[in-house]
Sequence to fold (404 residues):
Amino acid sequence: MSKIVDAKVIVTAPGRNYVTLKLTTDDGVVGWGDATLNGRELAVASYLRDHVCPLLLGRDAHRIEDLWQYLYKGAYWRRGPVTMTAIAAVDIALWDIKGKIAGLPVYQLLGGAARDGVLVYAHASGEGISELLDDVAAHLDQGYLAVRAQAAVPGVDKTYGVPERGQNVYEPASAAVPAEGRWDTESYLRFAPEVLGAVRERFGFDFHLLHDVHHRLTPIEAGRLGRDLEEHRMFWIEDPTPAEDQSAFRLIRQHTTTPIAVGEVLNSIWDCQQLITERLIDYIRTSVSHAGGITHLRRIFSLAELYGVRTGSHGAGDLSPVSLSAALHVDLAVPNFGIQEYMGHAEPASEVFRTSYTFSNGYLHPGDAPGLGVEVDERAATAFPYDPRYLPVNRRRDGSVHDW
Ligand code: CS2
Ligand code: MG
Fold:
């Protein structure tokens, strides 16, 4: 037995806010978990500090499944991003501990490597098509085999996925009060096929091209967009409509063969059960840090495998390096892997998070250090206090709230 003797929540903001859980056992082994929920960081920190950490003390760190069931069923109030991110942080830290005690990287505990490396996609963006094409070229030159393309929509004041002028890494949670933008779907539906067509025209079809619609269309608009993009052979369009309306994807499927990826805002197997079992999507994007950790993510991915749905986990910069490390271990081991998002982390994140994953020719590898292969410098973390930041709120031209 390895008894949990300390459970500590670290809130730090090296470049952006992160919440990290540190679990320590009586034999001095430390496990790290990511509890970051962009814009609601303190809610998860409190859920952990006030309602979970005290319950962990004295428990056996090896009993990962039992602790998962205890935290999920024992809370009575289930699911949702705050609860499942808190449970995820505990779960990820416990797998880190188990790997360290076993002297094995976590992927070896998950059945070993099913592939040599983890195919990743990078983010390219631009204020206009020309700037986007330059950014796509830069990422292809760096060896990426898959690139997500986002460009500012003419006439729309703030477009998702495009950094503000002077911002070198896109961070949407940019203000202590949610920034508000004005959105116009018709402008977007006219522009997106033009942008993605320009990328294919310049660079051809020898790399994977992805695009994030970011929840903004109605089902029939999404069907129209998917059909308009079929000639560009997208690897996927992501979140075409709000993910929680699972049956809406039946209508999208009736109109287009463009592959669909959904899941980054979903937090449990029940939230995506219909999407998977009705084959309404092609990739499931649930993340290790927002969907209950490694233990629950494996269940989601196993269900997806049964229905021919591949993985495509969320990996934006607001999921910490701890989360990315854990994701890579799962990605390396699952049979139905599709692709992993890799946005990188704005500096000075590397002053706090010491990682061991490596990039080579378009693939990441988690490394073979025992556990997850990531360590957190607590002293460095104290230099970056929490900095209240919220995600934007999106409004239509008439001022009514729209999905961001
Ligand atoms: C996006 C994210 O990476 C993605 O696919 O949807 O950037 C998302 O907007 C952020 O993670 C929200 O915090
Ligand atoms: Mg997305």
Summary: The chain has 13 helices and 18 strands. The mean pLDDT is 97. The domain at 4-105 is CATH 3.30.390.10 (Enolase-like; domain 1). The longest helix spans residues 81-102.
